[in-house]
Design a protein that fits this description.
67% of the residues lie in helices and 0% in strands. By secondary structure, it is mainly alpha-helical. Among the domains are: 103 residues; 97 residues, no CATH class. The termini are far apart.
């Protein structure tokens, strides 16, 4: 048997003579017309290394040079340099790619800012900072370096502070920047307008603080205090806007009637307009509240619309507008106000305020089952929000309060009181009180515990339960404890009216103030 080679061809077939091979090649070269094709003569390729030997077929090098190169070792440092060059190239590529991240966030944040959605603008600008820090941290940890590969630039910090100013006020932005930017913030060009606002406010309050505090403590009559503050007008460093503002603020602190506050606010508005500067942040919302409190709902809405036009994320403006519309019987318009506000925070992690406004709307329009279900859903969503959320930190830093689920507990308690389920209402308020007390203990402060709406609901739920047949051994001790906290205190006129049987809870919460204030 013939042995086959590696190509599967019998060895005897591979032993053809040179003449036979030449004859076969000549026969293959004959074309269809029987003519022999003449092969074009080509110049030989010279080895690119030695420069004199003919290169092997299909190669740039001769046989000798190829053999020598295969035997030669590649120097270690040369290999390392090649790898390093590749690594640097890749690092440069990733730095170039990730350096686009801050720019992308800034562009997106600017789009929200142009629409007056300052809540979202702040979150997105802040993300440019955090994502940049995350990339630098990861790159340095991976490479064992301590380098700032990408940076955001001062313009992003300026945008963040501007967002705070538009979301709250220029003075709030000033104090925020002191903590956020640290030493040297006052020297930054974009901070000068905020420093000016703070300095003017500080000068005004310093000059009138003795009068202001004396009136609050009862040592000075209100009329006399207002005259003393007025006498400061035109003195060095005194801005008329702040003179009028503190006259109103003092009347507000001393619980002067809404009509008296309204007259002082009109003087404040006149001074603000005369200044030629934008002081809407200092008087628009108080003016709207005073107009609402005096029953001028249409006028209140006009001022609220001015706020919303430049700050679409103002919860207070949307809430008061909704209440004014409900007071006018415009349930559909109030619903649209809620929807508009919810649309501004549709992509935000912070679900607190949009859900709260909808709960208030549903409760105020008598949709109790829907409102209660949303309270449960909203509380669960709020608990899932990361505690290092940018907006949660901002609210705590400026307003001094944590956005806990206690407000949804309170809203649920209001619904239960309206339905006559006082035991459930008290249970919900005790849950809220326990949560806020824990935070007060650990944080040394709780805005909710000092809020008349909060402690008013706690007191009323205990009082209604104490006079009903729903008292049990399980809740009696807690009811007694809560009521003992308010023995020497007084409640709002609405709460007193409910306790005295002059109004029902439903009348207050759906037809009156819409809340226990």
């Amino acid at each position: 048997m013939d042995k086959e080679n590696l190509n599967g061809v019998p060895e005897e077939e591979t032993e053809a003579s040179a003449e036979e091979l030449e004859q076969a090649a000549a026969e293959e070269a004959v074309d269809s017309n029987g003519e022999v094709a003449q092969a074009e003569e080509q110049e030989p390729v010279i080895c690119s290394v030695c420069g004199h030997n003919e290169a092997a077929e299909g190669s740039e090098y001769c046989i000798e040079c190829e053999t020598a190169m295969l035997k030669r070792r590649v120097p270690f440092m040369g290999w390392l340099a090649g790898v390093a060059a590749l690594g640097v190239s890749l690092l440069a590529f990733f730095v170039a790619i990730f350096s686009l991240v801050p720019s992308g966030y800034v562009i997106l944040g600017d789009s929200y800012a142009k629409k007056g959605d300052w809540h979202m603008a702040y979150e997105v600008y802040y993300s440019a900072i955090t994502e940049t820090a995350n990339f630098n941290s990861y790159a340095n940890e991976t490479l064992g370096t301590n380098i700032s590969f990408i940076s955001v630039g001062e313009k992003v910090n300026e945008r963040i502070v501007d967002a705070v100013a538009n979301y709250y006020s220029p003075i709030d932005a000033y104090y925020f920047a002191q903590n956020y930017l640290g030493a040297g913030a006052d020297n930054l060009p974009f901070m000068q307008k905020y420093k000016k606002a703070n300095d003017e406010n500080y000068t005004a309050f310093t000059k009138m603080s003795e009068t202001f505090n004396g009136a609050i403590e009862g040592d000075i009559k209100l009329d006399a205090a207002l005259k003393e503050i007025e006498a400061l007008r035109g003195t060095e460093g005194m801005n008329d806007v702040y003179v009028d503002y503190y006259k109103y603020a003092l009347a507000c602190e001393l619980y002067e009637p809404a009509q008296a506050q309204l007259e002082l606010l009109k003087s404040l508005e006149a001074s603000a307009e005369k200044s030629g500067e934008d002081y809407g942040w200092i008087y628009l919302l108080p003016m709207a509240q005073a107009l609402y409190d005096t029953g001028k709902y249409d006028e209140a809405i006009e001022y609220l619309d001015r706020i919303i036009a430049v700050n679409k994320t103002s919860f207070e403006a949307h809430e008061l507008k909704m209440m004014a519309q409900l007071s006018l019987g415009d349930v559909e318009g109030a619903g649209k106000t809620v929807d508009e506000f919810k649309a501004t925070g549709a992509y935000s992690e912070l679900v607190y305020y949009p859900n709260l406004l909808e709960v208030e709307y549903l409760r105020s329009t008598g949709k109790y089952a829907e409102a209660k279900a949303l309270c449960v859903e909203a509380a669960a969503l709020q608990e899932s929000v990361p505690q290092d959320n940018a907006m949660i930190n901002l609210v705590y830093g400026i307003e001094g309060k944590l956005l806990t689920t206690s407000e949804f507990n309170r809203q649920s308690a209001l619904i239960s009181m309206t339905e006559g389920d006082y035991a459930d209402a008290f249970s919900s308020m005790m849950d809220a009180y326990s949560l806020e007390s824990q935070y007060a203990y650990y944080m040394q402060y709780s805005a909710a515990l000092n809020d008349p709406k909060f402690y008013g609901a706690l007191y009323l739920s205990a009082k209604l339960l104490s006079t009903s047949d729903q008292m049990t051994e399980d809740n009696a001790a807690d009811v007694e404890y809560v009521l003992s906290m308010f023995e020497a205190g007084t409640m709002s006129t609405d709460i007193e009216a409910i306790i005295n049987g002059e109004k029902t809870v439903e009348e207050v919460l759906t037809k009156g103030a819409f809340d226990l204030v």
